[in-house]
DNA sequence: TCTGTAATTTCGGATAGACGAAATTCCTTA
DNA sequence: TAAGGAATTTCGTCTATCCGAAATTACAGA
């Protein structure tokens, strides 16, 4: 585990619109993997035209929420990062609450939280978190930022890159695609599951893996949605 | 109690924007008292300029959600009524859930629900309703429409007009103003409270009333926020 | 170094929603 | 019935967000 990171709080920041929160969250997400978020990557994630992203990125940069080097991509500033983590916390607390308390199926919670996260007040989110015992992870295994922006940013290897012959534990699964999530659920590929990669066919071929006791073959796309860590 | 009213379901209606839902809800609300919702009444309730309301009302009329006689006011069509009741159900289920399950103070639930009602899916609302045992009234005593648009529309007399010398039961209190709600709470003027009007000073003067066992004087503005029915 | 392709930005334009000022209509009252 | 005030609508504008088409830039490979 790497250090949890702490971001100082500069401004309380005026209320952001829903689209702005979505951009910041997407940039944060992309920056977990790449150094900067490119226009195309953002456009794809947000399902918008690249032209729209260009315009918004310029505006957000002028508001000090991110830095933008034309043709190079966007990087969150400290203020942007705080705003992104605030939205991420809302999202993941909501996912946890909906799944745990209200029994919303785990492949549906993402879409629902995606809308509610822009409307719920901070104090409501804190109430939900409290009711859940202030969880550190959401139902898909993603870490939940605290109220003051502390979050575990460990970058886990995906199942697609996990070394052959090695055992590991599923840390998290991507929550973006309900169909994929349903498939992973059927395979018992949930956070906490033990896996053991037996073989991987070359050229993006299927991966031969035991999940708990069951032996399975899974394709590279699904494997990329599953993040693994060495057994605890 | 008057007949619950039933509205047939014409169209599933495309998804409405948050402002549109707000307009429909406000018009429904105003129509509970007046025959048609005037531009000024809407502007005041929605805290918008009358010019803005004029424009929106015209648009909503062209979409078939309401009928508009220029200079005369707006009336919901069947389709508009259904949409309004759907939003009202969301609002009141959310209020109930937040207050009952999450312990949000009863004077805060309105504002929170006001934002969440546009984001929560129907199935989530139904889950919440189910968790509460499908309540018929929200924490302020307002009736909750069912999934298929049945709602009690009895028009209750307010405390300001309740006959002197008569006992009654508080049916509901207006949830719009948190400060007022806090005041009413301090007076124990909640749904279910027994009241007995002893005297009313003329010209909008104070009302002399017993609430439960306590004797109080309350002003006409607060009294207008409290709706009363003959004792059950 | 030159060049073609992919990524990005710019430009003009669209839509939803809101506003103030000015024009219009309604209705009461003299 | 004429006038004046109040309510309403119209008009021109503004902001936020989105788009397609055209122009620009970056960069890999010859």
Helix proportion of chain A: 25-40%
Low-pLDDT segments of chain A: 1-13
Alpha carbon gyration radius of chain A: 18 Å
Main sheet makeup of chain A:
6 strands, antiparallel
Tell the overall outline of chain A. Answer: globular
Break the fold down into its secondary structure elements and pairings.
2 copies of one chain form a homodimer.
Chain A: H1 18-31, H2 39-46, H3 50-62, E1 66-69, E2 73-76, H4 78-100, H5 109-116, H6 122-131, E3 157-158, E4 167-173, H7 178-186, E5 194-200, E6 207-211, E7 214-218, H8 220-224, E8 226-229
Antiparallel strand pairs in A: 1-2, 3-8, 4-5, 4-8, 5-6, 6-7
Helix pairs in contact in A: 1-2, 1-4, 2-3, 4-5, 4-6
Chain A binds a DNA duplex (30 and 30 nucleotides) through helix 3.
How is this structure best described in words?
Two copies of one chain form a homodimer. With 232 residues, chain A is α+β, with helices and mostly antiparallel strands. Chain A has eight helices and eight strands. The first copy, chain A, has a six-stranded antiparallel beta sheet with strand order 3-8-4-5-6-7. The longest helix of chain A is centred in the middle third of the chain and has 23 residues, at 78-100. Chain A is globular and about 50 Å long. The first copy, chain A, binds a DNA duplex (30 and 30 nucleotides) through residues 17, 19, 38-40, 48-56, 58-59, 70-72.
């Amino acid at each position: 585990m790497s250090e949890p990171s702490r971001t100082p709080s500069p401004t309380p920041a005026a209320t952001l619109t829903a689209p702005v929160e979505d951009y910041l969250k997407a940039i944060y997400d992309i920056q977990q993997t790449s150094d900067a978020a490119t226009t195309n990557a953002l456009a794809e994630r947000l399902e918008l035209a690249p032209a729209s992203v260009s315009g918004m990125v310029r505006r957000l940069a002028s508001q000090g929420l991110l830095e933008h080097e034309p043709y190079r991509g966007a990087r969150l500033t400290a203020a942007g990062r705080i705003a992104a983590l605030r939205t991420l916390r809302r999202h993941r607390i909501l996912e946890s609450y909906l799944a745990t308390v209200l029994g919303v199926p785990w492949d549906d919670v993402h879409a629902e939280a995606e809308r509610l996260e822009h409307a719920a007040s901070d104090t409501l989110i804190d109430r939900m978190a409290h009711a859940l015992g202030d969880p550190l992870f959401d139902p898909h295994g993603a870490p939940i930022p605290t109220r003051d922006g502390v979050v575990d940013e460990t970058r886990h290897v995906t199942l697609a890159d996990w070394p052959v012959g090695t055992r590991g534990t599923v840390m998290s699964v991507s929550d973006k695609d309900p169909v994929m999530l349903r498939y992973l659920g059927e395979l018992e590929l949930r956070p906490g599951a033990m896996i053991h990669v037996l073989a991987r066919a070359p050229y993006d071929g299927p991966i031969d893996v035991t999940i708990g006791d069951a032996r399975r073959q899974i394709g590279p796309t699904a494997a990329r949605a599953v993040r693994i860590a060495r057994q605890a």
